[in-house]
Each structure stands twice: as structure tokens, then as C-alpha cells.
Specification:
heterotrimer, A mainly alpha (200), B mainly alpha (578), C mainly alpha (95), A: 200 residues, mainly alpha, Four Helix Bundle (Hemerythrin (Met), subunit A), C: 95 residues, 2 domains
Amino acid sequence: MSEAGLIKHISHPHPVTGVTNSKLGVWCFLASEVMLFGGLFSAYILLRTGVTDWPRGHEILNVPLATLNTMVLITSSVTMVMAWASLQMKSLSKYRLYMTLTVLLGLAFLVVKAFEYGHKFEHHHFPSTDNFYATYFTLTGLHGLHVIGGIVVNLYFLLFGVKMWEKEPDQLAGRVEAAGLYWHFVDLVWIFLFPVLYLL
Amino acid sequence: MSHDASHGHELPFWRKYIFSVDHKVIGIQYAVTGLLFLFFGFCLMMLMRWQLAYPGQPLPFIGNLFSETAMIGGIMLPEFYNQLGAMHGTIMVFLGVVPLAVGGFGNFVLPLQIGAPDMAFPKLNMVSYWLYFTGGVLMFASFFVPGGAAQSGWTSYAPLSVIASSGQTWWLVGMAFLINSSLLGSINFIVTTVQLRAPGLSFSRLPFFVWSQFVTSFLLLLAFPPLMAAAVLQLMDRLAHTSFFMPSGLVVNGQVLEGFAGGGNAVLWQHLFWFLAHPEVYVLILPAMGIISEIIACNTRKPLYGYKALVWSVVFLGFMSFIVWAHHMYLTGMGPNLSAFFQVTTMIISIPSIVILTTLILSLWGGSIRFTTPMLFALAFLPMFGIGGLTGLPLGLNAADIHLHDTYYVIGHFHYVVAPGTIFALFAGIYHWFPKATGRQMNNFLGKLHFWPSFVLMNFIFMPMLIQGLAGVSRRLYDPMQYAHAQPTQPLNVFISISAWCLGLAQIPFIVNFFWSIFKGKKTDQNPWQATTLEWTAPSPPPHGNFVKEPVVYRGPYEYSVPGQKNDFWPQAMKENN
Amino acid sequence: MSGHSPEAIKKEVRTYVAVFVALAVLTVLTVGASYLKLSLGAAILLALFIASVKGTLVAAYFMHLRTEKKIVLALLVLAVIFFVVLLFYPSWHHL
């Protein structure tokens, strides 16, 4: 490929739009995710407002455990943004510390979730039991799949980050920022999912 | 760094042609796969037309090739007819037209037209194609599972789709792959168009083709996810026996359905489905309008009339397309207020469509028209899209829709738009850009031999369907003539079916032309049509990286017959006077 | 994303910690509010209001939307418009 054939604005922002390709790309992706969870919340609203006997979340679900999980995810958002900030401060060791914490907190979230699900299954409550359980399992399940995806991405940048940092530090910082935006979005969805499912 | 093909290294065959990250190779992969699925979907329709023309008659010659679950003694079973119907629609829309129009033409032409070396995310582009390919394989394979393929319409309405056989699960999983393919592709198109335009190529100098692909990408980005959500919910209903779409007390075949808690809502599926499927029809037409615009400008040797009107119309159309969906649901028991909202938005959305059609027609006025093969298809597109669009108006109004909903009128309407509409535009695009992709021309005589019978036969097929619909003939019925009011229209079914089979024959010149020209077509230079847009400044076919030197743009995309210039076209990237 | 000075980053870190504290407090608040004997309608409004505040903090500060470029903000406005339509129109009859 000739010299003229290199793709621009990978690491340096476009002079007019002011963003890099990956930043615009990940925001496009997040816009689509807004519509995905929008579809799910829309289904929830339609189903719940269509009946009179929908139970209150706190009657059925474990609020203290979920509150803990909410704090876990919020903390992981902080460690994620600190990981990015560490790269801005050119400290690879701090980056690795915060990224490790983010991955561990994400895993902790999943462990608590698994415990919640297991408890429900033990008591013979399944998605098929009724639409409250159906929406609870499906919405938190899809959110959980997104958490898994985020952990995989973060783990990739943790394990291969050193090599990337040595070769193209700006590009790594951009990619970690993109991964961070995704991770914050996953946190954002939970911030709404938690009160809607557990408290209302 | 964009990818690892460093300067001077030759890639092995499997990385150059199979798992390529080059947008041109990926575009051709999409196009070829799309054309194959169009062919397969067409064959499904030809089978359906036998049952409709000669109900209960054994299919000659090939009838005994089908298994006993499809045809007994060559006589089609209703379950198989329903599979053919559901999969014809699914395959044509999701595996044929859109992959060709967006994946094929978008991928190949867009980076070239904006002067970019490739898409913004080449590896993601490759992943998009293989996700589409996988989805297509799953859809095709679903014919061979017990119970056969999906058979609840391409619209998969609950609760029928929830209790249908396993083919429906394959449909849902296949759709999930297609949706993700589309998602990654649309991110690529948007970022590429915004970030990678060549110096001097402002948005107001973009060819209308790029605008149409750009707006289409927003439709795909934002409208598909609710269908993804719906597919997840339907999979949960089918596999985990949730009741998202299953109402309480559902009776099937005279018995109360067991195993579902109930409390669900079948209309929920319709809302989530149509939230995607309405913008989807604009995904079907917008790239076609873009292709037609390029060909009209080039073959009239004058600028398009009303470029600004075209651009504002397509942007407005894209926005409006998100708020009209429930006009597909007028008969679900919605009240007058909700219905009024959607009727109003539906009437409003017809305005930009008409503006676009009108500007394209006005673009012909005073032009020096070259009746090349692409131009013939482009000219035919205009009245065909006109008929398709106008026949949509009664459907958009609740009062008329009560009579026309779920009749052959609807089938006639949307096929006019997609078949002699979009598909003609896609043919036009193939004839137009074939020289750029291959360095050879397609044969003109075979092109005309393809065009004229196709044009006539398309009208023979779909005009009678409008009549049948007005007479009240229901769609999606294995035996529509079971109703007395439909029976007088049965001769039309014979006429339509014969026309459809002849239309299949009429594609042979195209297939022969396409393959023959790849190897033996007349060799061309880089700009055989003497066009102005950037793709014609690259070699035919363009090398990896597209342009030897990054182009710089000095003017708009349609500077044809400019007074004072020597040639009747002034390329966008030409610095000096012509 | 180079070009940020170490001092500017340190200031940003202080902001992140402040936002974290705010989010923690709001979480406690929203759980506490669920113990108030409110009608369902009032409970929904209160819970969604607190969640919106939390969400805004995450979006504005962790996701840097406070200082983000116009093109990103425009894209999000578009998505939010369609999100609201999708959320409420299907339930029109029930609301």
C-alpha cells in the first residue's frame, strides 16, 4: 500500500470534527446500545402498564445485595477512568493497577449476579414463572452479557497494553478511552435498571 | 497503522480474497453473495407462483425432487408454501437487496467517492461481511431442519411465531447475526464519511450517492437494535417459555395452550418489529436513489436539478422514517389518537419522497441523454418508483387501509418500489460500476436484452396484484381462492405466474453478460463514462489504497457541460481548467 | 488524547473522586427513598429522577460529555429523541 494510502485520524483528531475515528465509532456504537436497551425498557413499560397485579421489586428481589452490586459497578467506573487518566499521566504501572481493579470489580459484579440467579432458581423461580421474573432475568441477563463483553475487552487491554504502549502510546490511550466509554455506559444502564427492577 | 499488509508484501490468497480487509474485495464479496441470495429468493417465489396459478396440481419435472414434508407427489403442502413465503421475504430483504445495495455498492464505491484509501475500520468491515455470511448460511440451513424453515411470514408475528417449529429459532439467530453485521457496517460508514473525506470535499460537495448511504447508515444504526431486543424476547418465549408476547388464555387448535404463564402482549412484538422494519424500507430505497442520481447526472451531461433539495429531503426522510411505523398496525385495535398521529407523519413523509422523485425527473430536462444500459434502468426506475410510492398513499390512511391491509394490494405496492424500483437501480449500478471494478465493459446488446423484457414483465406481474388486492384477495394464503370473492381473479394468477417465470428467463442475458464480461469484456480506461466523481480518477480496478496520490477536491460533484470548459465534464479533483 | 498536562489531570482526578462520592450518596438516597410509603406513581418519579441525576454525572464527568465535541453531542441528541419515542409510543393506550 502506498504512502498516500494510510488511514487518517486514528490517533490524531480530525481538524474539523475534533474527534478521532475510534471515539466517533464508539459513540455510534453506544447510540445503538441506547436503542437496544430502549427496546427492552419499552417492552417492560408496555407489559407492566398492561396489568394491575405487577409485584413491587423489593418484595421479590434482594435489595441489599443489589445495592452492593451497584456500588461495585460504580467503583469500577471510577477505576476505569483512573486507568485512562494514568495513561494521560504516562504511568504504565498505575494504568495496570487500575485496569486490574476494573476487571476484578467487573468479575465481582458477575459473581453477585450468579448468586442472585442461583438463589432464585433454587426456589423454583424461573423466567417462565411470570412476566416479572421474565423481565428481571432477561434485562439483567442481557446487561450481564454486556458486562462480560466489557471484561473481555478490558482484560485484552490489560494483558496486551504494555506492548501497545511501547509501540503506539497515543493509540493505546484512545482505545482505552473507547473501552472506558463502553464500560461507563454499562454502568449507566445499571443505574437505571437497579431502581426500575429492584425498587419500584 | 491501518493493517499489517506492509508496503511491497504480497498477501497469501486466503488473506487477499477470502479474509480481506480491503473495502473493494469486501464490497464484491457482499455483492456476489447478495446476488446469489437474490437468485435463491427468486426461485422460492417461482415455486410459490406454481401453487397460486395451478392450485393443488403436481409440479412438473422437479416436483419429485422435494421431500415428503414439502410436496407429496409434487403437490405443494401448505406448510411448505408458508416457508417459501416467509423465507422469500426474509432472504430478498435481509440477505439480498440490503447486502447488495449497502454492503456491496456502499463498501465498494463510498471510500472511492470520498477520496479515502479504505474504510475507517477495515478489520471491522471484514467481520461485518463474515457475520452476514454466517447469518445467511443459518437462514439457508433452516430449510433442512425438522419442521422446515420459518413459516410465520417475514414479519414473524407472535404468538404464531412463538409456537412455530424450530426453523423459527434458526430465523431468530440468523437475524441476530445479520443485525450485528449491519451494526458494525453502519458504524464504519458513518465514521468513514465524517472523518475520511479528501481535502476540499465538504459535505455540500458530496455526491448524492454518499449522502444516501450516509443517511441509510443512521437508519441501520438506530432502528435495528429494537428488533435485536425483540428477537431476544422471542427467543426467550420460544426457548425459556417466558410470556413476553403470549397473552393469557391462548387457545390453539381448540385447546388452551399449556406451558406459558401468560400476561404478555402480541402487539408488543409488532411495535418492536415495525420500529425497525419501517426504516428498513427506506434502507431499501435510499441507496437506490443514490445510484440513480449518479447515473442520471452522468448520462444527461448536466448537473442534477435541486441538489440542496435532494440533500435536505433525504435527511428529513431519514428522520421521519422513525416515527411512522405504526401505519403497519392500523388494524391492531389502536385508538383514533394514536392512529391520527401515525397517519399525519405518514402523509408528511411522502413529501420528501416526492421531492426527490421530482428533482430526478426535472434533472432530465434539457439534458443530452445517453441511452446506455445503466441509463435505461435508471429511467425506468423513475415511473416505477412513482407507482410504488403513490400506491402507498391509501395504505397510509387508516380508512382505506382497513380494506387493503393484508391483501395483494400491499404486495403489489411494495414490490413496485423494491423490484422495478430498487432492484432496477441495483442493476443500473452494476452496469455503471462494473468497468471500475473489473477494468472491462459489460456488453451493451445483452444489457438491452436484459432490460426490455424485465421492464415489461415487472409490470405484468405487479399491476394485476394491485387489482387483486382491490378485489379483496388475501395475502399469505396457500389457497386464496377458497373465498368466493377472490375467485374471479384466478386468471390473473395464471398471467402473473407465467410472467414471473418469464422474468426469470429474462435474467439469463444478465447472468451470461456478467460472467462473460469479467473475462472477455472490452477493456476500458479509468473513466469510460466520462464522469466527474472521484472514483473515476482511480485506476480500473483500483489498487490497494485506491489512489496513487490523495486527491484534492476543487468543485461540486456534477460539473457537467460547464460553459467555457473544453470538455462536457469537469472532474471534481481536476485543479486546472478543462 | 495527548496534550493534557499533569496538573490538569490531577484536577480531573479530584473531580472523579467527588463524582464517586456523589454517586454513592445518591445510591443510598434512592434505596432509602424506596422505604418511604409513596404511591407507585410518586415512587417512579422519584426513583427515575435520582437515577437521571446519577446518569448525568456518569455521562458528564466519566464519559467526558461536559467537554465533548458537537458532533458527538448531536449524535446523542438524535438517539435520545428516538429513544423517548420508542419508550412511550407502544404503551400509549396504557399510559
